[in-house]
## 1
Amino acid sequence: MSQTLQAAPATRAPSDPGENRRLVVISVDAMSVVDVPFARTLPNLSRVLAGGWGSAEAIYPTVTYPNHTSQTTARTAAGHGIYANEIVQPGVRRPDWFWDARAITSPTLFDLAAAKGLTTASVGWPVTGWSPSIDIAVPEIWDPAGLDQTRAVLRDAASERGRAYVDRHAGEIGWDTKHRFGRFNTAVAVDMIGSDRPDVLFVHLVDVDSARHTTGRFTPEVREAFERVDGWIGEILDALGAAGLAEDTNVAVVSDHGHVEVGRCFRANHLLVQEGLIRLDEQGEVASWDAWVHGCGLTGQLHLHPEAGQSTRERVLALVETWVEDPEIPVAALLGREVMREEYGYDGPFVGVLEGTSGTNFQNLWEGRSLYGRFDPDYTFLLSQHGHLPEQDIQAVFAMVGPDIADGVRFARCTVPDEAATFAHLLGLEFPEADGEPVTRVRA
């Protein structure tokens, strides 16, 4: 559903799209429309919300990497190829994520901008490692082994010009039980604006999402995360001002999904072990498999081994149908690949998608037991999650302010691919194929 950005008075003519304009896109991961009233009380998010804003429906699945790729390609997952956060690696306890930009199967905004001679930069943006077209890339990537290993792999995945920023700011990467990139990403973005003055800059800030996963949707910790992120956004906005770029820069704040409270954690692969469809070695690790459920937040992708025959396929599908019919197993439906592609623009190397009952988080693991309830004494998992069907919960935020955005307007509801098409429009670029359209109309 598309709408237009109204031009503010004394801005460029619509016939000269992108002339002398810059673009900064800041992702506040997991910010939703219900957060807007509180965000308006914060000094810097309120500056962006004073322009135009509205809701944006995520693509399926409503997880970070597919949606952030849609924000740079204007495609759904079937078009850009990033069908989950993690790559499917059956038996691997911590699968690799889709860090490598070369996995994207459609042109990105960075590709289009590079072809036009614009300087592009990204900081912490998903699926930008080893990018062939981003001039200054400092991607989101980590090594669970620790901080030193994370600094090394981050430097390796960065572009040649990006490595200088990694070297200058690596000391600002935080680490407690996992990586903390917010302070680092902000410092790098501010440095880039002052030093390289890129025409296009994408920045990813994840603190709100992390707080929601671990403490719930609306908690004091989430409020504190918003306050931190607001301060970082202020640093980026102030850096644009200090560099003399603010008047010619359109700034967007986007997000990728809402959150749903988790009521249970489901390990479908534990049931597949019991059925002999996954076989373990003496150490309890996966030795071989015929079927695998790849957790994708509140849904699970059903995979068959590439060498599985028709009889195995029929057996697995019949088994999953018994799960759907069993009230003790939290699977509401098996949605076939063809249905997902037609209705949601979703495709990948799976035979179908398991839609969990409300608040069911899918895990890849296979040991322990198949189901953990929120009030079980040994429940130690996420309290809030996403990955559900896009229409099922509160929507993401799309806000913009700048010389080509009228102040005080409300965008009608759009989609995440529409955001990328809008960014291209503002830069005078056009995707050769897109599932989104520029937001061109607004309502007061």
## 2
Amino acid sequence: MNVHPVIVRAIKRHEGVVDVDFHTSEPFVRSSSGKSYFAKIGSMSEKEQFVGEAEALKAMHIAAPGLAPELIECGDIDEETSEHPAEIGKPYFVSEYRNIGSLTDSTAKKLAKRLATELHAYKSTKGFGFAVPTFCGRTKQNNGWYNSWEECFDALIGGLLDKLKATGGYSELCNEGEQVRKRVIPALLGSVVIEPVLLHGDLWSGNVGVDTDTGEPVIYDPSAYFGHNEADLAIARIFGGIPKSFFTAYHQYLPKTEPGDQYELRGDLYELYHYLNHTVLFGGGYASSARAKMNKLLKAFPQ
């Protein structure tokens, strides 16, 4: 299978050569140098998604080099590299390719240390949020910058509720969601003293693993933004697959935020975000899971 000219150009730039042979079974591309790449070309409607992933990987590479695949190049196909005029303007994306295996207890502990001491130690100078939209699954997070974590997280939850309202359904769920915004978010997040640190944003077992060539942990498919480090642990608890040793080790390096007695409730609030997002994406039973979380939170903070 031929490699698209725009991918060829990107890899040649990266390797600093004028000619190279390729072997491919897309999206996996291997050059004659022996280096392997992940490459994709999207539709016009996917431009923001490609940029969001690229900017997230750039930030993660600065914060924790090697923990995530390195971005090679992201841009739009131009006249020089298009194979036909209809391609001009479509986005393309090239990154390192990693052979991924499953986490073990020992590599989960390594991952916990790298998250706590590197990724979650990398602070924003602009506030909470992110410079461009990032995508949690197919859901666009309308990031931007916020002065407080309360304001940022409220906007994230509000964005999901707006998407659910736009479907014409989920009225009871959305009404309870607005009560969570009014009563729970200010109570739980209004007084926490935290700094905005870089989050992966979608840190479940399907987006973490071990580089089988190096034995080191790796994370990928980010929906990154700057927020409260504890928010990055939420979806890992929901879907499992990440060893318990990860959570124990993580808090050895980065203790729970004060007040510690609200740690579990904050976790419920952060899990709610992902239940709502899965309701947006898939519907079904996720709405009832979201309501169960809301009921627990609203009971903890009655009017």
